[in-house]
TrEMBL record:
Residues 3-115 form the Response regulatory domain. It holds the Pfam family LytTR. It comes from Chryseobacterium oranimense. The modification 4-aspartylphosphate is found at residue 55. Signal peptide: none annotated. One of its GO terms (molecular function) is DNA binding. PROSITE patterns: HTH_LYTTR (PS50930), RESPONSE_REGULATORY (PS50110). It comes from the Bacteria. Keywords: Phosphoprotein. InterPro entries: CheY-like_superfamily, LytR-like, LytTR_DNA-bd_dom, Sig_transdc_resp-reg_receiver. Residues 143-247 form the HTH LytTR-type domain. This is Two component transcriptional regulator, LytTR family.
Length: 247
């Protein structure tokens, strides 16, 4: 049997996931955890399971806090309404990232992915897991931004560019500019590299919004929507930029 733990602070969502997992006879749910505090206590006192399904945003913090305080060799499948935390999730033994509402086919795919890792699971350490999951790189499809006391979801296909200013990274859409919680280095790792390219230390651009490219006296890109500052391509990036443009 595959010992499994569910970390979810919403009881209906926890029960639903447990019902969905009942369709896999090889999976045994041994515990359901509702908070960071409860999770730290449980993982400190019990044998760690092979597989963990974990929501990210809990009532008393982020589930990441559990595994930072009680490191686990188990495989984690994160379940969440937002993919804002993709990068950090894949740094903490995650092998998949399911967006709510969870679909049966997505859950089945995640379980099958876990099974593909089982042969080495008894001797696999954190670094080995990280090597395995690097091949399962996820791409960011939407960003959660804060507007005053409200939250808004912005789809990445709506974003013309990301840019840094005064140590804050902003994203530009047709509508307006929004601040984000990411760094440009993090975004480089999780954005779709076929669509997004970092042209210099300050800008990452989306190919769908390129309006014009000047090549003399230096490479400069005009975007449909961009801040007032011009967007130039660093000299050491020009070759990669041209290759990226042609796919």
């Amino acid at each position: 049997m595959i010992k499994t733990v569910i970390i979810e602070d919403e009881k209906p969502a926890s029960r639903k996931l447990e019902r969905m997992l009942s369709n896999f006879p090889e999976i045994e749910v041994v515990a359901k955890i509702e908070s960071v505090e409860e999770g730290v206590a449980w993982f400190s006192e019990n044998e760690h399971p092979q597989l963990i399904f974990s929501d990210i945003v809990l009532g008393d913090g982020l589930s990441f806090d559990i595994f930072e305080k009680t490191p686990t060799k188990g495989f984690i499948i994160y379940t969440t309404a937002f993919d804002q935390y993709t990068l950090k999730a894949f740094k903490l033994n995650s092998i998949d990232y399911l967006l709510k509402p969870i679909l049966e086919e997505d859950l089945s795919g995640a379980v099958e992915k876990f099974k593909s890792f089982i042969p080495a699971s008894n001797t696999t350490g954190s670094e080995d897991i990280k090597q395995l999951i690097r091949k399962e790189k996820s791409t960011l499809s939407r960003v959660l931004v804060k507007i005053g006391y409200n939250l808004k979801i912005v789809q990445t296909h709506e974003i013309s560019c990301f840019f840094s200013e005064n140590k804050i990274v902003y994203l530009q859409t047709a509508e307006r500019v929004y601040p984000s919680d990411f760094t440009l280095d993090e975004l480089e790792d999780i954005l779709d590299e076929k669509k997004f390219f970092r042209v210099n230390r300050q800008f990452i651009i989306n190919s769908d919004y390129i309006k014009n490219i000047h090549t003399s006296p230096y490479y400069k890109v005009d975007m449909e929507f961009q801040p007032q500052e011009e967007i130039t391509v660093s000299r050491d990036r020009v070759k990669d930029f041209k290759e990226w443009l042609v796919g």
